[in-house]
């Protein structure tokens, strides 16, 4: 009888110890995942690292998905270093089910992206015709999880882009293209503005060049539609890139062209735009790619000293607004400085307000919520700023 009691005690002790070891290893594994996520995937808007752990008998099954192979490899290596046995069930994006069609080109003048894969979900961002994207997976609803050149990740329906293989994507990138210059216009089925329209166009659209036809340019869409664009409304794409020379003055001139354009949450085109969509569009038309949201843009560029006032600001600087406490800063709005204590921004519509209390367009709300300023033009290809020339999406290196 005494032997049985001792045996039961030993079994219980062993079981408790095994449970304690499993809990310890689970904690270590969670700590590893948290550290890797903080290093490789700080923001879910620009990276995917969704990992789940299930433990049984000191063996841990790790599932989920990521678009970061280096992060996945580090997780596995760090677990081995800690002596933790794992079963790797992490899906590395893009998924195999796409059968190599993991690239795309935006096929509408302005395509709408959603936070979730359905038409009634929140508009998260937009992308212009001709924009290259990376495709990660397809939902049963027909939506695709994709990433744009500013690294933003969201859902796009299959009417918004042309799905491509790497070879098809490379052919598009190598082809001669045109860049549309007018704020708003159309392409036509014939070289005649009275012919049937093929689609609308907005400034920044990119189409494949076919040939010049009198006062029109024959173009091809990503889905192979053929159309004609007025020659005086577009420019050779390579010429546009090579002639880019952004200055403080040119940034302001472009910004003012959008005066009165209505605000739309998620908007990034000359049709409608939100605050960061406005700043993003202005700089994109000078070949500079900004992050999508104000709370992302604030982490790029050169910080300007504004602790004693606004005298250090220059034309074209980005102004960031929000709330601030000793342990937290929350950025909710962005504007472009245009001099004389005035700034242009999208708030209801694209408008100009001032920090000067003596001016009619003074905004006490914006003054009280100003947080910091960043300079973009001194940060080209550094401090988180890249260009169409150097961006891996536009270079076809995704």
Characterize the structure shown.
The structure is a single chain. This protein is α+β, with helices and mostly antiparallel strands. The protein folds into four domains: 2-93, GMP Synthetase, Chain A, domain 3 (2-Layer Sandwich); 97-172, SH3 Domains (SH3 type barrels, Roll), CATH 2.30.30.40; 175-242, SH3 Domains (SH3 type barrels, Roll); 248-387, endopeptidase domain like (from Nostoc punctiforme) (endopeptidase fold (from Nostoc punctiforme), Alpha-Beta Complex), CATH 3.90.1720.10. It contains eight helices and 25 strands. It has helices spanning 2-40, 69-81, 166-174, 237-242, 248-256, 275-284, 294-297, 364-368, and strands at residues 49-56, 59-66, 85-92, 103-106, 110-114, 123-128, 132-138, 143-147, 153-157, 161-164, 177-180, 184-188, 197-202, 206-213, 216-220, 226-230, 234-236, 288-289, 302-304, 318-325, 328-339, 342-347, 349-354, 370-375, 386-387. The strands form six sheets. The chain has a seven-stranded antiparallel beta sheet. The chain has a six-stranded antiparallel beta sheet with strand order 19-24-20-21-22-23. A hairpin with a 5-residue loop joins β15 and β16. The longest helix is centred in the N-terminal third of the chain and has 39 residues, at 2-40. The relative contact order is 0.09. Residues 13-18 have low confidence and may be disordered.
